[in-house]
Specification:
The protein is of the alpha/beta class. The protein folds into 2 domains: about 10-240, Spore Coat Polysaccharide Biosynthesis Protein SpsA, Chain A (Alpha-Beta Complex), CATH 3.90.550; about 255-315. It is built from 8 helices and 11 strands. Strands 1, 2, 3, 4, 5, 6, 7, 8, 9, 10 and 11 form an 11-stranded mixed beta sheet that branches. Strand 3 (about 40-50), helix 1 (about 55-65) and strand 4 (about 70-75) form a beta-alpha-beta unit. The chain is globular, with a radius of gyration of 20 Å.
Amino acid sequence: MCNLHSKAVGIWYESGGRRLSITWRGVRVNGGGILGRSVAPVSVIIPCYRAGSTIGRAVASVANQTWPPAELIIVDDGSDDGTRDILCQLQRQHGRNWLRLIALPENRGPGAARNAGWEASTQPYVAFLDADDAWHPRKVELQCQVMLDNPLLALTGHRWRWVRSLADGDSDNPDRIRVSMLSKWTLLVSNVLSTPTVMLKRDLPFRFHPSKKYSEDYLLWLQILFSGYRAAFIHAELAYLYKPPYGASGLSGHLWQMQVGELANYYLLWKERRLSAPLFVMACALSTAKFVRRLLNSMLLWNSGRQLQEGVSSDVA
């Protein structure tokens, strides 16, 4: 078993039944940075497709980190709506040495776009953010410190919060957080890792499936853990998602395609002999049951939104 340790920050670690409480030692990040580094050894990758209205918010959340990452790489995935002009403005604002732009000639999907940024990254750790989401100001500081303190960890993730506006994103400033090991079985039963919460080692011998547009991130997490690499989960809300995970616009709104993509992930794991036949059947059954629940939740969300719109229309009339 991998024991978790902390050297500097106020983190509450769990390893099996054992718990270790680490008190905050007054280490501040502003100025010299943790461990004397002015920037965190992290490359942040944002795939961007027709996201001119939200990319500025995402970039600001990265630039305002208490321990800023060494570089931000934005991959424009074939946008044709003026998004590239906005990206160029952001690059002039933040500097070419920190904000790097990669322009793909055509839309290839989020997996291929993230892979392009991953290959261009220069830091030992890579973190992902979507163009319509944002981070807590201490996300990089806390998550990177966990990985530096525990070099056997290949991947970490954390909790997230669904918010409606920028003001809702002002959550607590955690002085202590709890971290626990994340097993492959937990991940198989439920994908607890949303892409904007993940930080991983750059040199892992895996990449996002370039041709998958649905559930390609979940496949990557599964492949990493089912290959024997270790992961941990940080029990703190360090990312903000600005649209509901199910039933909203964008890729996550395509519930059936996402379900097919998830089932295909289990099939690939079984084909690669990482899942036995009974586990494959169990995973597919659980996934189908969750799909029915998501579908019902999406219908309720759609109906409540429709009623709200009708109420607003009535007030205007």
